[in-house]
Amino acid sequence: xxxxxxxxxxxxxxxxxxxxxxxxxxxxxxxxxxxxxxxxxxxxxxxxxxxxxxxxxxxxxxxxxxxxxxxxxxxxxxxxxxxxxxxxxxxxxxxxxxxxxxxxxxxxxxxxxxxxxxxxxxxxxxxxxxxxxxxxxxxxxxxxxxxxxxxxxxxxxxxxxxxxxxxxxxxxxxxxxxxxxxxxxxxxxxxxxxxxxxxxxxxxxxxxxxxxxxxxxxxxxxxxxxxxxxxxxxxxxxxxxxxxxxxxxxxxxxxxxxxxxx
Amino acid sequence: xxxxxxxxxxxxxxxxxxxxxxxxxxxxxxxxxxxxxxxxxxxxxxxxxxxxxxxxxxxxxxxxxxxxxxxxxxxxxxxxxxxxxxxxxxxxxxxxxxxxxxxxxxxxxxxxxxxxxxxxxxxxxxxxxxxxxxxxxxxxxxxxxxxxxxxxxxxxxxxxxxxxxxxxxxxxxxxxxxxxxxxxxxxxxxxxxxxxxxxxxxxxxxxxxxxxxxxxxxxxxxxxxxxxxxxxxxxxxxxxxxxxxxxxxxxxxxxxxxxxxxxxxxxxx
Lengths: 262, 269
Fold this sequence. Notes:
- The structure holds two protein chains of two kinds.
- Chain A is mostly helical.
- Helices cover 86% and strands 0% of the residues of chain A.
- Chain B has a domain at 1-100 and 212-269: Rossmann fold (3-Layer(aba) Sandwich), CATH 3.40.50.
- Chain B has helices spanning 61-68, 91-99, 116-127, 132-145, 161-172, 191-208, 219-225, 243-248, 252-259, and strands at residues 21-32, 35-46, 50-54, 76-81, 84-85, 101-104, 179-183, 211-215, 228-233, 236-241.
C-alpha cells in the first residue's frame, strides 16, 4: 500500500515537474520573440515547411469532410422533415466554420507538423546540434522554437480559412449532385445562418491550437534523451499530447468565447 | 592533485603571453545521480597552450569540456576564463564569451538541415558584417585549412565521418576564436588524417596563439601535439605535466593508460 502511495506521489511530482518545465519553456519562447536578431529567413522557411506544405493535407481532408456531411445529413433529414435539406448549406457551413475545420485542421497539423518538429528538434538534441548552437552563441529556444511558434501561429489559422471555404464547397457539390439542392439555395442558407462572430470564434481558436502544437512539439524535442528511441518517444509524446490539448482546450476556449458572445 | 606547482614556463612549446591563466578550473565538482564524475578538479591553462585532457571513456573528459563551455553547470567549484566565472555570466556576456571560443564536437554536430557552406558560415552571417562575397571567401579559406575543397554545396549526411569532423573544425574556427576546445578530434579518422588534424592544431596555435584544450585518448596524438597533459582518473587529475612527464611516470595507472594495456589498476568496466 505504501508502495502504491509512493508511486502515485512520484507520478504527481513528475507531472508537476513537466508542467513547470513546459511553462518555463513557453515563457522563454514568448520572451525571445521580442529579442533581436530577428531571423526573417528562418521564419519564412518555417512558414513554408509548416504552412505551405500543409495546405494540401488540410484542404483535401476538409473537402471530403464537407462532402461526407452532405451525404450523411441530407437523406435522414429529408426523411424526417420534408424540405429541411434546403437548410443544408447553413448547417454544413456553421459546423465547418465553428468546429469541424478548426479542430480537423489542428489535429491533422498536429500529426504532420507536430511529429516533424519533435523528430527534427529531438534528433538535433541527441546529436549535440542543440549544444553546438549554444556554443555558437545562439540561444536554441530563440533559434528553433520562436520561428516554429510564429509560423504555426500564423499559418494554421490561414489553412483553417482555406479548409472552411473548401469544406463548404464540398458540401455544396454533394448537396447539388445527390439531393438536387441548387447552389444558390445552399449558399443563401449559409449566408443566413453563419455570422461573422462564428468565423471569429472558429478561426480565433486556431491561434491557440497553433501555439499548442508548436510549443508541445518543440518542448518534446528539447527533452529527447538517448538515441533513436528517445527521438521516437519525443515524437509520440508531441502528437498524443497535442491531440489531447487541442480537444481539451477546444471546450474551454469555446466556453470562454461564448461568455464574450462569440 | 592540483597543478599549483605548474608555472607557465613548465610546458614545452610556445610560451604563454601572460602569467595569468586563460582558463582555470577551481575545485570543479559534478555528479550524475550516484556517480561522482568530477571530484573537485583544479587546472590552470595559459594563453597559447595546447593542453590535452586524457582518461578512459566515461572518466569525465567531455563533462569537463561542457563545464568550460557552460553547457553544464557544476555542482560545486568554478570555471574562470580571463578571470570571469563563466557560470555567473548573464546570457549576453556568455554569448560574447562564446563568440571567442570554438568547439569541435565528438560527432561534429553539424546542422544536418544546412549545407557545408551554411554550417561554416553560420556564425559569420549572424555575428559579422561581412558581405556575402567576403563570407564565401572566408568559408572557402577555412575549409581549405582543414583540407577540404569543393564540398560547400554538399549536405553533412553525404560526407564521411572524417570529413564531417573537419567541417566541424572549420565551423569552430570560422570566427578566429581565442580558445578552441576539441572533443576527440582524431577519433574515427584514419591515422594520416589524424596526423593532419594534429598538425592543424599546432599550426593554429603557432599562427594565432590560440589556446587549445583537447579531449583525447589517442596517445600518439598527445605526444605529437600537447604542451601539457592532464589525466583524469577516478574523478581527479592523476597527473598534470608535460608529455615527457607521462612517458617517464612510474605510476602504474599512468603506465597502463599510456601503454594501452588491458591488465593493470584501471578496470576495463
